[in-house]
Amino acid sequence: MIPLASDTETRPSAAMRAAIAAAEVGDEQRGSDPTVNRLLERCAALLGKEAALFLPSGTMCNLVATKLHTEPGDVLLAEGASHVLRVESGGAGMVSGVMTEPITGSPGVPPGTFTVDDLDATLDRLAHLPFPYAPPARLVCIEQTHNMGGGTVWPWETFAAVTARARERGLAIHMDGARLMNAVVASGVAADRWGALVDTVWIDFTKGLGAPIGAVLAGSEAHIARARRLKHAFGGAMRQAGIAAAACLYALDEHIERLASDHANARRLAAGLARIPGIRRPAREPQTNIVFFEPAPGGPSAAQLVERCARRGLGLGAIGPRIRAVTHLDVSAGDIDQALAIIAEAIADG
Ligand SMILES: *Cc1c(COP(=O)(O)O)cnc(C)c1O
């Protein structure tokens, strides 16, 4: 099966497994796992923050960060299709008791991003009535790259302006950086420059970085100290987690620069899709490793086309009317060419 459904499908390579096998371990829960501690130092430096925390998943990073920055009844703002609002089973509401308010990007902005005016419009709408009537906006979450937007990298100028405006208006700023390293490789803007403009930021090791488990949240000493308590309360504290951290350290060394080839494969896929009759895809060139497309009207549904491709050995994901393909280290340029041939056949022959 060509695994294009998600970059979470990466399997640890032999060399990564060797790093795992050789890991020195201790008790992570007590802060005495040396491999985890090395990972945290590396990540804090990478992201330009004072401290960092190892968590089992990216979802728990968003969960902890939302709790960290809000009180029940506060408002969490995020772009309308963002992961924290749409893909986390309501966790932010369940655990933090926040209200959520989607931000809609104005027409023409890169999908998944929004402008200062869009942020202002959302905050002004929330504050139509004065204290104590309106719920207080407290936190904005910025997703980088934006998954449902198609792996969008925030334009630097927009990001700088939006974060400055959010600060002026008294918001805490959290970056869901599940694929931040893809954005770093695509934009050439270093991770610590993105990190400098937000309060908390995390990266996922189980997406394009190709590790089996783990995500790291970074922030100030004070934020991370409180986050450590929340992690414990949520059941996220671990024991010999160096087993997992060793794979993450390996990924930091070996799997960042190579993300550029995933991006090239995504562009190769998008260019090929544009030549297949019956397939529609956005005119935007993919910036990173995610490509959305859809069957043209009159053809099969997205779910039907995904099923036809699966029968032919190609894994894709149907998300509503759209199909998502994600490139990663277990997908080669040859796999892309084969995937294109399968899609062309599946749409023509049923
Ligand atoms: C995958 C993902 C998450 C959640 O990370 P997990 O490690 O799967 O829990 C959060 N945000 C975005 C944008 C993601 O793509």
List keywords for this structure.
4-stranded antiparallel β-sheet; binds pyridoxal-5'-phosphate; single chain; 7-stranded mixed β-sheet; 350 residues
Structure, explained:
- The chain is globular.
- The two termini are 19 Å apart.
- The protein is of the alpha/beta class.
- The chain contains 14 helices and 13 strands.
- The mean pLDDT is 97.
- 49% of the residues are buried.
- The strands form 3 sheets. It has a 7-stranded mixed sheet, sandwiched between helices.
- β12 and β13 (322-326) form a beta hairpin.
- The protein is 43% helix and 17% strand.
- The protein has helices at 14-21, 34-47, 58-69, 83-86, 91-96, 116-126, 156-168, 180-187, 191-196, 221-233, 242-254, 259-273, 302-311, 333-349, and strands at residues 2-3, 51-55, 75-79, 99-103, 137-143, 172-177, 200-204, 215-219, 279-280, 290-295, 314-315, 317-319, 322-326.
- The longest helix is centred in the C-terminal third of the chain and has 17 residues, at 333-349.
- It binds pyridoxal-5'-phosphate.
- Residues 57-59, 83, 143, 147, 176, 178, 204, 206, 215 line the site of pyridoxal-5'-phosphate.
Short characterization:
With 350 residues, this protein is an alpha/beta fold. It has helices at residues 14-21, 34-47, 58-69, 83-86, 91-96, 116-126, 156-168, 180-187, 191-196, 221-233, 242-254, 259-273, 302-311, 333-349; strands at 2-3, 51-55, 75-79, 99-103, 137-143, 172-177, 200-204, 215-219, 279-280, 290-295, 314-315, 317-319, 322-326.
